[in-house]
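[Meeting: bench + compute handoff]

Bench side (C.D.) handed over the final construct sequence. Compute side (W.E.) agreed to return the predicted structure before the next meeting so the bench team could plan truncations. Sequence as handed over:
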Amino acid sequence: MPRRGLAAVQPLSGPLGLPTAWSIPFGVAMLGGAAALGLIAGHPRIPARHVAFVVAGNALSCVALLVLAFTEVIPLTGLGVAFILVGALVVAVYAGLELAGLRRLGGGR
């Protein structure tokens, strides 16, 4: 597979220990998530079920990142583990803020 179009895959692979075979799906998933959020944000009034879906997706992403950080599924370096943990923290904060917003709207318990 040609790697010319994959922006930072090669330079980050070594320092993070994240194989290219994992970097590409991560990037595609992040772009897909961003596209889904863009579609949801286009609603004049965002339905509570869409917010709940986003909260659940972010919570699952956080758990998946923690699993990757604390298991040897992929050969992460120390910097790679730190990178993944920061990502998990960011996603957890987003999920918490989204859940607080959902509860404020009366859509969550």
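W.E. noted at the follow-up: The chain has four helices and no strands. C.D. will use this when planning the next construct.
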